[in-house]
Automatic annotation (TrEMBL):
InterPro entries: Ribosomal_eS1 (IPR001593). The chain crosses the membrane at residues 185-210. Pfam families: Ribosomal_S3Ae (PF01015). It comes from Eruca vesicaria subsp. sativa (Garden rocket). The lineage of its organism: Eukaryota, Viridiplantae, Streptophyta, Embryophyta, Tracheophyta. This is 40S ribosomal protein S3a.
Length: 224
């Protein structure tokens, strides 16, 4: 029985650090899940398939003398992606507060929880997946929640800590090419090969990529 090797990569989910994708170490706590959708020559087309925080980042946020508030919603983007968003927030001391603790009352927790859910639904349902991922990276949703909840009980360290894709539309190559404008094919393939421990193929790929870089060739290379 024979099969094409590239078919084994399709629909596999790979976990990478956002710091590696963007070259920013400040984003090392954010883990991005990418699913391989198609293979073209030596390039692998991937799309966003979820997000999560590292364990050490989550543990560093939890501190004493404050209240933890969590919310999760099921939303649908304008391009028909169904996602599950998990938000985390912590209360903070008010301005000029003398008391060292900042515990919120049950009614305040419920009101903040309601606002967090409303903002997540509003922000996610009004854009497509590409725009929503940009909001996750720039923390615009968390900043909006902090502003809105100031009148109830002030919050700090508001993050979308986890994203799950529950249902995705049918694969569209043209749409995928638009979504992946910030991720190069070569870099994603390097991460995939390192994940699969393909040492020999990884060495050959680096040698070929180095030669292409020196010759500055931008043509598509067919798989042998």
């Amino acid at each position: 029985m024979y099969f094409i090797a590239s078919e084994g990569l399709k629909y596999r989910v790979f976990e990478v650090s956002l710091a590696e994708l963007q070259g920013d170490e400040d984003q090392s706590y954010r883990k991005i899940h990418l699913r391989a959708e198609d293979v073209q020559g030596r390039s692998v087309l991937t799309q966003f398939w979820g997000m999560d925080f590292t364990t050490d980042k989550l543990r560093s946020l939890v501190k004493k003398w404050q209240t933890l508030i969590e919310a999760h919603v099921d939303v649908k983007t304008t391009d028909s992606y169904n996602l599950w968003l998990f938000c985390i927030a912590f209360t903070k001391r008010r301005a000029n507060q003398v008391k060292c603790t900042c515990y919120a009352q049950s009614s305040q927790i419920r009101r903040n929880h309601r606002k967090m859910s409303e903002i997540m639904v509003k922000e996610a349902s009004s854009c497509d997946l590409k725009e929503l991922v940009a909001k996750f990276i720039h923390e615009s949703i968390g900043s909006n929640i902090e502003k809105v909840t100031q009148g109830i009980y002030p919050l700090q360290n508001v993050f979308i800590r986890k994203v799950k894709i529950l249902k995705a539309p049918k694969f569209d190559l043209g749409k995928l090419m638009e979504v992946r404008t910030d991720i190069t094919f070569i870099y994603v393939l390097v991460l995939i090969m390192k994940t699969l421990n393909l040492t020999f193929l990884f060495s050959l790929f680096l040698l070929g990529a180095w030669r292409l870089h020196r010759e500055d060739v931008g043509v598509k290379v067919d798989r042998p």
